[in-house]
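User: Batch of two.

Assistant: Item 1 of 2:
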Amino acid sequence: MQPFLIALQFLTSLPVRLSGMPAPQAVGRSLLHYPLVGLLLGAILWLGSFAIGGAAVPLQAALLLAAWVALTGALHLDGLADSADAWLGGFGDRERTLAIMKDPRSGPIAVVVLVLLLLLKFVALWTLLAQGDQLALLLAPLLGRSVLLGLFLTTPYMRPGGLGQALTDHLPRGQVRVVLMVIFAFCLALGASGWLALLVTMVIGVLARRAMCRRLGGTTGDTAGALLELVECGVLVALALQV
């Protein structure tokens, strides 16, 4: 139970309290529950879409997106903003890129990237809700967090001493592979939408990992958060284009 609560506390703004400082092994095992947290977030959004179903579709999309950001505490948006600033301002230099990521301030590139991503999410949600397609509300949060299992399973962590270090050092690799296979099978069982969402996730994951390894030699918490946001956005847009 503790690993799930660790994942829930870290990935959401839900009021979760732990009894004490978790052991590194429990932190590593918490990664196994990231997809479950994503599914929980998706279920909340899915139920929310029915609760506000009488409102105009653009308003539904805006309310769901606002709830989505609130439920996650904008944690991953912050990672995307830091990564965007660092990727441009780092000029291809590893140490400069890592240094910029640690700067809490956001530059114009971060603002532009966040606005574009939220705009794409909003319009994609609008399109999907107009067609009565709520499945994307489950798939996007689920796959956005599932992709992190593959990232930490295959990619070195570049910030020694952080939470990500505990994840990679104490990651139950065999169980992670089992969870990924379950997610894979689940998406395939959903038919065309599940296949498309899975394909988009894999493409974005591979390209993002390659960029991280070339620039940094691995991943950081910020780049992991950026990957999550890119996958969520990519899945929503791809499914909206399919409508």
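Item 2 of 2:
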Amino acid sequence: MAEFKIHYLFDPLCGWCYASAPALASLAHKFPDALELNPTGLFSGEGARQITPAFATHARTNDQRITAMTGQPFSPRYFQQILGGNNVRFDSMVMSMALTAVREIDGALEPVLFHRLQSERYVAGQDTSSPEIVARIAVELLNGEGHDISESEFSALLTHGKQLAKQTRQRMENAQALMSRVKASGVPLLLVQVGETLHPLNGMDLYADPAYLIEKIKHIVSTAA
């Protein structure tokens, strides 16, 4: 099989990216050396906002569609504490920074952390726009894998780490450049790169049986070689 890369473009707060979590887990297991996560910054900076009643209603409708289509769970606690909470921010920057930090420490743990952040938000009802909560989740993972770092150290990195913020913004710019190359505007988006050619996959390709997606990627790589 020819050499290839798999670019997974996402935002940590994108519900439809949560819908593709089983596919991402399969890709991380099957193609660990080829998979690259690319946060796009969709819901950070100008894309961030407060969760208002109107926004919560819109999000709940999407979440219910995701469950109906894919079976991915959203708990009552999430609906109550996140969508129905007071003064809750909808801002993915902290999560994108945490993913970048973990990638620098141990790249294999980045998709694992992403999945844990999604589960903590959508199932446990934790506010994953909070640096303290994200730091706790990340440090539990890192410490469990033998990396020695404290919650206070990681939280400070998320709130005051200028170099980390710069690295994260650069990743977002790179992701947006990839989207521009294939004239895409939404996430999740999977780009299978063989040589300089990008082959986009999205929508039902990412929500169907992960085994189907793996076979489709193998077919793209074998025919593009």
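The domain at 5-224 is CATH 3.40.30.10 (Glutaredoxin).
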